[in-house]
């Protein structure tokens, strides 16, 4: 059995909803969509039981009616699995994973700034990467976003006041 | 003692890139740090969505002034996988060669910056002088010191002549000899060892938990390297050691990078020895079939990840870039706690945050009009100019070697 098949088998055993749903693209690359209500359990299982201790990045995707959040989990051996969760566009809310992966803080802040997704549990902090005086409700990586004069006029980021 | 918070940046005398740090002090000791990043965010991901795949390549090469080849390779690998292109072996070997030359110039640059941050400017002058050997080769191959533009869809744009190969190998010998000397300095120069030891300590558990990458993680005993764990380009064909150290402090980060320099020389020799003949690129389509790819690359600063999604047109649906420095910031916040404020610059510099690097002008404007110089002529012009000011480096070198009893 290849390393990829071992991972797929272990995941399907624990989460039957994955049966036939995991796509093996090539050596060390797996992809799957995960239902929102199962995502947390899957992430914990990957981290705690299957050695996927790295969160390499989170990619935000504008899919029209939904936003996709694609989590790139990795094993130190080089195996990568991309797990996508879709959240509704009208209610772009998701939860933070900084408890499991503290490094995800900046990845989450980036998606919050660029897609307008709110991460429940992410403590208030300095924003990233847009300027402090960026107008509200302007999310540049959404596909329907166009730069407006208010954005163009935004001054460079102001100095952080302590 | 009451705590005070001081803001440093975004424009900072010691750091060459804008970032704003909010450091809370308990006396001289750093209690905590928060930071504001994003001053250099240029919206490249969005810009890529509005350009063709190949236009995006040139944009992506300009993300960073030091690891320009890292980003362009990570991106082009993703496109090639999406399009199902088989890059010829020689193309992969040249791509890997540039990658290792880039690692050498980046690590030498870092060694100089680190030495400068702790007041050891002699080492800065030495390493940056040696770095010029690599920069010259990069300029010779790609026509530019920073954005070499060597990659293209399906391979590389520049081939190597046997003369160039011989020339590179000769300089690799020189660099190896110099690096051995730096390794000796790094391990035997007591003031340097004392200055860097126990500064910015991060345990292996923390490094793994906080998601540190590259030499920062490897200096804490984390045995990870994308080149070995998830091989790409020609790394499957070469033998090399992943440099891991267990000091966990800035000193360990010096040892890892010096060790990686030695490995890079060995990789370059293997590539040159086994360089296959043949074409350097295959023809590529303008449109790329729909799909998504996750491409990883071991940049000098650590793992660089690019995600590319295609929708079947000639423009990408989404390009997502995660540069290594972004992964390391969380670890910096941890490793800086409990250190003295005076150590903040070297701790921040020790992850090697990406600095901007400028190109050199090669057009001289004189009263008589503009004159374009070749690379060799520009070098000679620099040497002559210094000689006229009374500084002859060749003479000085000779004198120094005589004094040290190293007459050649």
> Which class of secondary structure composition applies to the elements of chain B?
alpha+beta
Helix-residue proportion of chain A = 25-40%
Strand order of the largest sheet of chain B: 1-2-3
What would you call the quaternary organization? heterodimer
Query: SSE string of chain B, helix = H, strand = E?
Result: EEEHHHHHEEHHHHHHEEEHHEEHH
Please explain how this structure is put together.
The complex is a heterodimer of chains A (162) and B (408). With 162 residues, chain A is an alpha/beta fold. Chain A has one domain: 2-Layer Sandwich (Beta Polymerase, domain 2), CATH 3.30.460. Chain A is built from 4 helices and 7 strands; from the N terminus they run H-E-E-H-E-E-E-E-H-E-H. Chain A has helices spanning 3-14, 36-49, 104-115, 149-153, and strands at residues 23-26, 29-33, 54-62, 66-74, 80-88, 93-95, 118-120. In chain A, a hairpin with a 5-residue loop joins strand 4 (66-74) and strand 5. The longest helix of chain A is centred in the N-terminal third of the chain and has 14 residues, at 36-49. In chain A, 34% of the residues are buried. Chain B contains 15 helices and 10 strands. In chain B, a hairpin with a 2-residue loop joins strand 6 (291-299) and strand 7 (302-310). In chain B, helix 2 (53-60) runs antiparallel to helix 3 (68-83) and helix 5 (121-142) packs antiparallel against helix 6. In chain B, strands 1-2-3 form a 3-stranded antiparallel beta sheet. Chain B is of the alpha+beta class. Chain B has 3 domains: 4-36, no CATH class; 44-350, Cytochrome-c3 Hydrogenase, chain B (Orthogonal Bundle), CATH 1.10.645.10; 363-403, no CATH class. Helix content of chain B is 49%, strand content 14%. The A-B interface holds A 25-26, 28-29, 31, 53-57, 59-62, 70, 72, 76-78, 80, 82, 101-107, 125-131, 140-141, 156-157, 159-162 and B 5-7, 9-10, 20, 22, 34-39, 41, 43, 45-46, 81, 208-212, 223-224, 226, 229-230, 292-294, 296, 303, 305, 307, 309, 318, 320, 322, 326-327, 329-331.
């Amino acid at each position: 059995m290849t390393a990829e098949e071992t991972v797929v088998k272990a995941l399907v055993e624990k989460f039957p909803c994955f049966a036939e749903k995991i796509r093996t693209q090539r050596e060390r690359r797996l992809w799957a969509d995960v239902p929102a209500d199962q995502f947390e359990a899957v992430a914990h299982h990957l981290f705690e039981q299957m050695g996927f201790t790295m969160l390499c990045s989170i990619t935000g995707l504008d899919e029209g009616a939904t936003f996709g959040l694609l989590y790139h989990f990795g094993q130190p051996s080089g195996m990568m699995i991309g797990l996508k969760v879709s959240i509704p566009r009208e209610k772009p809310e998701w939860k933070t994973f900084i408890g499991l992966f503290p490094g995800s803080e900046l990845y989450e802040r980036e998606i919050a700034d660029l897609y307008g997704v709110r991460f429940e549990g992410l403590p208030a902090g300095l924003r990233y990467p847009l300027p402090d005086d960026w107008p509200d409700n302007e999310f540049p990586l959404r596909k329907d976003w166009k730069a407006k004069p208010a954005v163009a006029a935004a001054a460079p980021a102001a100095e952080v006041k302590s | 003692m009451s705590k005070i918070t001081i803001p440093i940046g975004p424009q900072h005398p010691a750091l060459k890139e804008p970032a704003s740090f909010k450091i809370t002090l308990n006396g001289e000791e750093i209690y905590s740090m928060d930071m504001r990043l994003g001053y250099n965010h240029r919206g490249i991901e969005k810009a890529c969505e509005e350009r063709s795949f190949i236009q995006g390549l040139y944009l992506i090469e300009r993300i960073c002034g030091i690891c320009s080849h890292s980003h362009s390779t990570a991106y082009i690998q993703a496109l090639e996988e999406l399009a199902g292109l088989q890059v010829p072996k020689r193309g992969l070997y040249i791509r890997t060669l540039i990658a290792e030359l880039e690692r050498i110039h980046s690590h030498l640059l870092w060694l100089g910056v680190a030495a400068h941050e702790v007041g050891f400017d002699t080492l800065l002058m030495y390493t940056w002088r040696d770095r010029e050997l690599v920069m010259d080769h990069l300029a010779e191959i790609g026509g530019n010191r920073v954005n070499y533009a060597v990659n293209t869809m399906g391979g590389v744009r520049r081939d190597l002549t046997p003369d160039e190969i011989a020339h590179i190998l000769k300089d690799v010998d020189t660099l190896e000899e110099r690096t051995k000397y730096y390794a000796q300095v790094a391990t035997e120069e007591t003031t340097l060892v004392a200055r860097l030891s126990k500064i910015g300590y991060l345990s292996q558990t923390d490094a793994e938990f906080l998601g540190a990458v590259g030499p920062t993680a490897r200096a804490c005993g984390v045995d990870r390297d994308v080149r070995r764990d998830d091989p790409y380009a020609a790394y499957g064909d070469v033998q090399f050691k992943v440099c891991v150290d267990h000091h966990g402090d800035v000193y360990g980060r010096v040892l890892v990078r010096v060790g990686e320099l030695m490995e890079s020389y060995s990789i370059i020799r293997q590539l040159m020895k086994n360089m296959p003949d043949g074409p350097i690129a295959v023809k590529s389509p303008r449109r790329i079939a729909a799909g998504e790819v996750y491409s990883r690359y071991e940049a000098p600063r650590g793992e660089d990840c690019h995600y590319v999604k295609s929708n079947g047109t000639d423009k990408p649906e989404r390009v997502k870039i995660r540069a290594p420095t972004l992964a390391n910031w969380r670890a910096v916040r941890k490793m800086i706690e409990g250190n003295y404020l005076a150590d903040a610059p070297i701790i921040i510099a020790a992850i090697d945050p990406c600095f901007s690097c400028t190109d050199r002008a090669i057009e001289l404007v004189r009263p008589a009009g503009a004159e374009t110089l070749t690379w060799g002529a520009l070098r000679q012009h620099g040497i002559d100019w210094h000689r006229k000011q009374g500084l002859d480096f060749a003479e000085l070198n000779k004198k120094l070697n005589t004094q040290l009893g190293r007459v050649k």
